[in-house]
Fold these 4 entries.
Entry 1:
Amino acid sequence: MGRTLTYPKRISNTANRYKHRATYDLGPIHSIINASQVLHVSFNPGPEDPFPAILPMIGQMGSYEFPSASIDEPLDCYLHGYVSSRIMKLACNSEGDGLPICVAASKVDGLILSLTPNSHSYNYRSAILHGYAKLVTDEEEKLWAMKLITNSVVTNRWDNSRVPPDRAEMRSTVILKVKIVDGSGKIRDGGVSDERKDYGNEEITNRIWTGVVPVWETFGEPIRSGDGTLGEVPEHITSFIATKNKQNRALAEAAVKVTLPQEEQH
């Protein structure tokens, strides 16, 4: 059996609450990041602004140096943005290792409906990465990252669109490469876990429904729009939708089937 690669535990990423749900394994953490349509990226905008900045961005884990690297190996996080955005300007002007940033992602897999509001919860998967961001200046790596991110939106979309981007598009688009320093994830799965004082009380258990409502992201029927005149929806889109809907439902339903001990609290 191969060894499992993990992120180092540091002050910034070590879980202090519900430690049994935490993971530092590269595979699960990278998978959560890659499964998220939107990543929330936070950074320090500078001394003139006291508030931390958070941006919704599109991104994907990958390795330009080792394109065949698997999800459980060391990877960089590539983020897509516009040349004039504040984070891109800060990254461009940063010295040393780059701009310190945090990348966060969350997926909800179920609503946990318990006997008491305090025991309600979610089945969820969440991940956080810390690292240093720099602009990708090598054109080949930039194109590679743009293809990686585009295909994360819809599988094989890059080759089914007008590519490569022209010179103006390349100038206006900026790719940040985040060298990851540490990361952690949290996963809650299973069913309802009530307070001991409640689950033995028939007056309460006889009148309150408890259970799990599975939650999964569903992609709908494509609706043609824009200047494209092709009428039939291409196979790369229909197969992507069918595959993702099946996968997302299976994940949500599988999460409920894990049995937790009654004593575990939310």
Note: Residues 235-256 form the longest helix (22 residues).
Entry 2:
Amino acid sequence: MSPLLRIRAERDRMSAIERRIADFLLDNAHLLRDYSSQQLASALGISQSSVVKFSQKLGFKGYPDLKFSIGEALAREGAGDPRPPDQEPDASPHVSLAESLWRAKTLAEQETRLINPLEQIDAIVTAIVDADRVFICGLGQDGIHARGLGLRLSLVGISTVEHADPVLMAASACSAGPDDVLIVFSEHGRQPELCHISRQFRARRGRIISVTRHSANPLRAHADAALLISAHDEHPHVEPLLYQAALQHMLDLILVLVCQHSPDYAAHYGSSLEHVQQLLDP
């Protein structure tokens, strides 16, 4: 794994000092050859030992090994992404922007895939297909993905209960049992209403799956399984787009794995689409 990719993937779980080091490395990767560990520490106003410990926490012997690995990764990326011979150097700003956004989304998807081990994804899929009912809740922007997942699971024949209103979900959760699953969407995992619903669901002995950023948060603490999303950008209007793209890709993967779990699901999906299409195009 690229050291820069590893730093991005681990950033949300780092301490405040470690995040300062990580952000500096990510923003100044091309300049690191001119920085010793002492110079880096002085630039950030921290101790040299903090830089060394940061490097060792990532699996390197020390800062020189980390710096060398980042340099190698940058060299590989530069060699593997040459400009096509027929592409004009002064391409349309729209083309450059579209390519930059696509690369950022791809990076967010790669980071997200790396922090969600295969066994973790399989555990989520198993919990969904084994559940009597799947309760799904998300507020605001998170509700869009919650509704989308609820719709698709319904199309494959899985019984779902989806609400964007926490009061309605709390009322529905009163009927939950030990064979039910709650999937709760919250980017930052701090909404008190969703934490209350999770505690209520836990009291009914149901299983909980949280969908949040890759960070320590109350909602994730309540969950039996967690789907983690990693997406970072210096522009506040771009970062949510990366989060939504990475999240949607993971939900698509989960849906495909659910359909592969049983041929009945795929057959039910096709039949359901036919019925829906008859309503849309009678």
Note: Residues 239-261 form the longest helix (23 residues).
Entry 3:
Amino acid sequence: MTAEQVKPSAPDGTLSGLSRRRRRQLSLGGQYGLFAAVIVLIALLADWGTLRHNFANWDVAEGLFPDVITVGLRNTALYTAVGFGLGLGGGLVVALMRLSSVPPYRWFATTYIEIFRGLPLLLIFIFVGVGVPLAFPGTTIPGGAAGQAGLALGLVATAYLAETIRAGIEAVPKGQMEAARSLGMPHSRAMWSIVIPQAFRIIIPPLTNQLVLLCKDSSLVLFLGITLEQRDLTKFGRDLAGEKGNTTPIIVAGICYLLITIPLSLLARRLEARRKEAR
């Protein structure tokens, strides 16, 4: 028997005489046991009857349909789609300005990105809802609440998506542009036909993540003074919770948000995995 086969035992009865793998197994077992004990303790101490009545009252939840879908969910999806569309178009323009060889374009793009990424989205909603009518009397934003919400979301999304698109363009190998130019293709045509399509394939996952964030940020539309038919999920749930004296409508609104965000998150992870497999 060699010296390596003899494992010294700890005289004080501690785990120092055990192998690293065994110590790790015991540590994980202790963590799992502690976690299970906390869950059991919470389950025993919680007042499930009160929780069910206030957060999962089926009678209250049943009365929310179909308005929670036809009003709240529909408007949330609409505000998100308009904001993302404006942000995607604006982000592409600002990204190209950021990469431009013309200094004023770069200065404007950099300033825009820094300002709108640094300001809270709530201030942007207040500016769109209050500042624009005061600055331009008699001017109304097309589309009503959808136009106002889309503009506020689009202004911020433009700043974030501009950086995402710029990173995607810079990730395209420079040889692609050089090959296109060597064939006599103008720079602008090579950018639109060769570089930008490849860049968008690269940045599809972060674009999907930004769409998820915009969906949740659309809840700030309540600061625009919307009507009952223009309510998003958050406003809808909050109004009904106050009306019925029960928080179940807020839970239902949260579940509706998950119906949008979870599939988008799964799609983003799937696209990211496919992109890694293609490398």
Note: The chain has one domain: 58-278.
Entry 4:
Amino acid sequence: MNIHEHQAKALLKTYGAPVAEGVAIHSADEAESAANSLPGPLYVVKSQIHAGGRGKGKFKELGADAKGGVRLAKSIDEVVANAREMLGNTLVTKQTGPAGKQVNRLYIEDGADIARELYCSLLVDRATGRVSFVVSTEGGMDIEAVAEETPEKIITVAVDPDTGVTPENIDSITLALKLDGDAAEDAKSLFPALYKAFVENDMSLLEVNPLIVMEDGHLRVLDAKVSFDNNAAFRHEEWADMRDLSEEDDKEIEASKYDLAYVALDGNIGCMVNGAGLAMSTMDIIKLYGAEPANFLDVGGGASKEKVTAAFKIITADPAVKGILVNIFGGIMRCDVIAEGVIAAVKEVGLEVPLVVRLEGTRVKEGKEILDKSGLNVISADDLDDAAQKIVEAVKK
């Protein structure tokens, strides 16, 4: 689950992280009072969408010459003018795709005098099984280019969960970021605070880009991106208040109601699979045969008929889907339950695209018999390779 920048900064501020004063607004009428509450005279007007690259993004409605989704304003009048221009329009960035995202809220923030821009993030490093700091002196909007072209400028520092952030960790990060003076002193409190916020809030990502050294020599969190691990939602009731459904895909929202692991993609072959690894393999083999998956969908190991029905309905609700591949290897999951769920869904929503079903494992014979006797136009497959070829061929017709 992602949250907005202003929410992430408010959270980090409770841990003592240095952030600028700012106010989130939902309408242009709030812009003047928001700016008046800040010290000024420099302000930053920031689009709040769940995507990076906002500064270099472009608004669909405003033309190529318009400013991006993060703008400096040197007066309150400029703040108001920018707010009126940005709110309600569609911002397109590298991370939104060509469709972009509508800007429904802004963050009006006090400006900062920047001496240096740095990069700092925390994530779970699967190679070490530990939370790690990933830092670079090359902060700002082009960190992706740094990772691709000069990866040696990105340094990783793993933290032992038994000790937390140690003085040695701080020294390593400080050295990597070339901090000295007041900035080095600030680092002694900032980096343990970021780690504590990450762990206590079950984050999967905490990215500060840029982390800045100001002209006065002190550190400040200038931007913040936070993603929570959905698996920990049961112990964080406060997350519900931070969730912005307008930023999420309608199909993904519906899937979450049934505890389905669903991610919308850009292809035209809908996939329903049990098990994340098998789902990834299914998407890979679809691409191997020259097509693109429309989604990742893992119904889980013990899905009910109702859950399978819901999954099928979510797939068919996507107008981009021109064919469906059901790939089930029944261990805990029973093939007859999958078959019953598919039939129930088809009877409810209809079937207007080719459907290929590959079943294997527990009660596979019963599952195939249910499909055979259903009268549905189902293309049966013997294995995953066969299934992928059949659905790709069917979609091409």
Note: The chain has a mean pLDDT of 92.
